[in-house]
Amino acid sequence: MEIPCPNCGAGNWLENQSRCLKCATILRRCTDCGNYDAKRETCRTTGGGVDASEAAHPSLLSSSTNCMSFRYVGRRA
Questions:
Q1: Residue 73 — φ and ψ, nearest 5°?
Q2: Segment 17-27, tens digit of pLDDT
Q3: Based on the number of CB atoms within 10 Å of its own CB, is 45 exposed (0-12), middle (13-18) or buried (19 or more)?
Q4: Which of 3, 12, 17, 75 is the most exposed place for a label (fewest CB within 10 A)?
Q5: What's the pLDDT tens digit per position in 42-62?
Q6: pLDDT category of residue 76 using cuts at 50, 70 and 90
Q7: Backbone phi and psi for residue 41, each to the nearest 5 degrees, phi listed first
Q8: How many whole angstroms separate alpha carbon 39 and alpha carbon 22?
Q9: How open is the CA angle 63-28-22, to the nearest 5 degrees?
């Protein structure tokens, strides 16, 4: 699935990449995932808590960066 980079908007293939090829921003963010409950700061799939700052700006070691349940829904207001 091709998704836009949350930073620069460049198209990236999610299956092959964890970072944007143009600007190196991490692509899988809980903030963009349909399984993330922002009000409760939890993942509906794992039931685990995800801090809002980690959800928006994950590190390479973050569980969201390598999440196999990631379901892209795009940016939320």
A1: -130, -5
A2: 899 999 999 99
A3: middle
A4: 75
A5: 999 999 999 999 999 999 888
A6: low
A7: 55, 50
A8: 32
A9: 130
Predicted local confidence at residue 39, as pLDDT: 95
Residue among 43, 33, 44 nearest 72 (CA): 33
Q: Chain centroid to CA 47: how far?
A: 16
Q: How many residues can be counted in the chain? A: 77
Q: Could you identify the residue written with the tokens 């799939």?
A: 45
CA distance 31 to 64: 10
Quote the CA–CA distance of 18 and 39 in Å, as a whole number: 26
The confidence score (pLDDT) of residue 70 equals: 92
